[in-house]
Amino acid sequence: MSVSLDQIKSLRERTGVSMTACKNALEEANGDEDKAIEVLRKKGETKAAERADRATANGVVAVVQKDDKAAMLALACETDFVAKNADFIKKAEALAERLLTEGEDADLSNEINDLNIQLGEKIEIKDRKVISGKKLGKYIHLNNRIGVVIATTGGDDDLVKDLAMHIAAANPRTLSPDQIDADLITKEKEIWRELLKTEGKPEAIWEKIMEGKEKKFREEFALLTQPFVKNPEQLVKDLLGGESVLGFHRFEV
Predict the structure, then answer these.
(1) Which member of 40, 150, 151, 204 has the greatest number of CB atoms within 10 A?
(2) pLDDT in tens, 133-153
(3) Considering only the top CATH level, what class is 58-175+225-252?
């Protein structure tokens, strides 16, 4: 079975094993990444392959910006000790610089492999994004575990910084209420029905109650209709002053 370059890169980032070893293991495992890890273990590539199953619950988010383009990268590791290491934070920033220069699909597998060896624990890229816009705002939370980039049609530096800070704190899922995923609403409605049943509400008014719940749910998780964290009396959409949000991304490790 032939395997793609993306599959090989993914396995290498997880294990730190050579590209050739990853390719051979994937072919033997018919493209199944987890089975390929087992193949690597059986062939003696145990140190790096075993590391692939470790949890990467710590890490940092790095954001770099130049003119109208920014790159954000979430670099995960196993321990808080490594996450707080100044060299690790600098490496995350350097990798984000690579994305800014080479594009979102830049091959960073060699750098990740080197970090695995240097630090003796599993290191992986959780997420990456390059975003462009007329006006960009960015924010990194003090612990480096949350990062935000937002693009707007305009506005001043304070506006985009405030918007990015709000997104870090409020964690909106979409830009506007109508963009909330329909499957998520369906799941929430199932929960609401059970709650209404438990509360003994008359079934005849369930739909009316759920309409209100759905409207509130959509507005609570959409950026434009969230109360601004620095002034809850004001909605985010009222801050824009005629400008529009082109997009935003929030990473957390």
Answers:
(1) 150
(2) 889 999 999 889 999 999 999
(3) alpha beta
